[in-house]
Every structure is written in C-alpha cells, then in structure tokens.
Amino acid sequence: MEKQIEFSAKLSNKVEENPDFYNWNRVRVRYCDSGSFAGEGYDEANGLYFRGQRIWTVVMEELMSKGMRSAEKALLSGCSAGGLSSLLHCDQFRALFPSSTVVKCFSDAGFFLDAVDVSGGRSLRSVFQGVVSIQGVTKNLPASCTSRMEASLCFFPQNIVDDIKTPTFILNAAYDVWQIQESLAPKNADPQGYWKDCKFNHSKCNASQIQFLQGFRDEMVNDLQGFSAIKQSGLFINSCFDHCQSERQERWLGDNSPAIGNKGIAKSVGDWYFERSEVKAIDCPYPCDNTCHHLF
Hints:
Mean pLDDT: 97
Oligomer: single chain
Radius of gyration: 19 Å
Shape: globular
Order of helices and strands: EEHEHHEHHEHHHHEHEEHE
Low-confidence stretches: none
Strand order of the largest sheet: 3-4-5-6-9
Helix content: 25-40%
Distance between the termini: 24 Å
Strand content: 5-15%
C-alpha cells in the first residue's frame, strides 16, 4: 500500500472540486481483506484467517471514539469491492448513530451482476461462491436474502439492494469494464481469445459483441427496477465503459465530466443526499452518450 494517497474527487477538500462535501470530515479505509469486509472464517489447511467483519467493526469503533458518534450527517461510500462493502454494511453503519443523524450510503461500481458470461457459464458466481465459502461470509450476509436463496447469491447486490432500509445511491457504468473483463469475458470463458481485443477496448468490438454487451446493460437496468422504485433511493447509471467514477476528479466534477440530462455525478449525488431533488438517472444505451470518459 502507498504511504500516502491523494484525497480527490468525492474526498477533495476544495470547494471547486467537491462543493457538497469538501468541508466534511473524510476518512478512507484501506481495503485489505479481499472479501468486502464481510469475512469471518479460517482455512485450516492453509493457515489462513479471514477477519473482514472484525476489521470493519474495529475501524468503526475507532472512528466513533474519535468523534464520528457526534456527526450530524454521515455518508458511507466505496468503489468496486468497496462499493459492494458499502451496500453490505449500509444498515450496520446506520445502526451506529442516533436516529437524529442523517445517514446514507453511496455505492460506486459495486453493482456486480450475476451475469452469464460469453461461454454460457457464470464465472463471477463461481468466484463469489469461493469467497463466501472460504471466508465464512454467510453469517454476515442479510438474513432477508439468505433465508430465501443460496448464500453466495446474496453477495450479489441485485439480491440485497431492495431490502436495504437506509437511503442508498448507486453509481455504475452500464458497461462496467471490470465486469466485462473479469465476469463476462475472463480467460476461462474465452480460451480462444475471441473477446481479447474487445474487452480491453470497446471500439474493437464487432456487432455481435456489442449486442452481447447491450444485453448486459439491459440486465443491469432490469435488476435495478425494484431499487429505483424506492422513494429514498438514488441512481446514476451512465452508458460509459468505465469503473469507479467517483474517485476520479475528471469524472466526479470537471469541465467535461460525464452527465445524464446535463447533470453530472457530483451534482446528482449532492442533490440526492441533501434532498434537493430526486435523482433516478438511467442513460440511453451506448453510443448515445458523448460525455463519457471511457477506460481502455
């Protein structure tokens, strides 16, 4: 891990870069457990301890002791695995504070889909099954989900977001490049390398590959329908090939940042958090959005 990291975008302390949250107390929790801070297991054969949930608990206890318990407003956020963690721990975070505190959660690039890959299998489901099993995650997953389906499926946000009681905002690229590379077209699902060029640069995708990716986008939008219907929820699903947009200043807030209906990400999150307006923004399909910053 780097000894120092820049606090930019949603963590920036400059009003021009982060107008709604620049003067907040900001804490970045380093990701170190490979299980979205949800594990509680022991792999005896390999002598491995998984203590993600304990790490989460002790970090929160430390922050509360340092003054977070007196916060008037709080926002739990994360990107990618941290975005998933912010969903898994959202209601736990809410429970730390008195009812008078305004507490909300914001997940960026954490809406991992249980999607069919290019071979017809489910590569990410297999990965999540391994994580949940070896790390002992089951006991820390929402009972509202594990009571009705196999535990590893409850590691997928699509199966838990409708039951989160705390107001939550989901930011995701409809063509999430990490999921394209690691879930839809990983090497084990594409041994001949048919997707190799496309998955790293969408401009090299042929018509059938784009059609497959449109199906992935449609699945994401469909899986968010129930969540979108929740009055207190917020959404910003843009048609970009990207990942972790709230951690890059040029995505979060800049002269040419991504936008849906002329509203960018920072403004959308701020409007939702402070209840200035409802934000349920879902972009039209690629290639309609010319504001995207695509990752290659």
